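Not sure how to ask, but would you mind making up any protein sequence you like and the tokens describing how it folds?
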Amino acid sequence: MTSLRTKFMIGAAALALPGVLLAASAPANAAAARVTTKIAKVTVFHGIPGVDVNVYVNDRITLKDFKPSTFAGPLSLPAGTYKIDITSYQSDMTAGMKSADVIGPVSVKVAAGHNYTIAAYLTTMGKPTATVLDNNISMLPAKKGRVTVVHLANAPTVKITANGGTLIAKLSNGQHAQAVVPASTYKVGIVAGGMTVFSTKLPVAAGVNTIVYAYGTYPKTFAVAVQKVSAK
């Protein structure tokens, strides 16, 4: 699995390539089938509250005024390497041109056959940074689902509970962990300093990786977002 410290924004590169989505359509023959094996699926998550951003791929703006707390994708991206720059949308508007990078520039390689989520988030010092998660899409046992929790919040180390029991004992900013559980709906809690600081009901479907992102700054802008990725 790609390290969570890998730099940001593979996913937005797909927007720069008009033919990408066509390449991911159902193959009509064996040659087309071989083409689709060279594609990565990519979702982008914006987890920095209060900052709208622009995304540049190979110096071309491809994602404009991307709002916090939202996802873009899943997108289909051919295997390759891309130059990515992330800027403030407001700064770009004020300057009338591309402003200084918030993140980047970085050179990012996309591997075929993978399913990624790329997220901008805050460190525990409140600094904008970013990461890529190579989502686990391996086959699951019958009637089982996978839960992945990603700690992207400006918040202390936490414990994750499910129906009152420990699901993940310890998780710090920039880290993720996963567990395979029976398909069901769980009461999931985030515990810090011995106190439950957040709880929600989380449906976990069979054959699906349910990914929970904790982001923002605790307690003012702390929130969670959920993504579901089907296993192979």
Notes: The two ends are 16 Å apart (CA to CA).
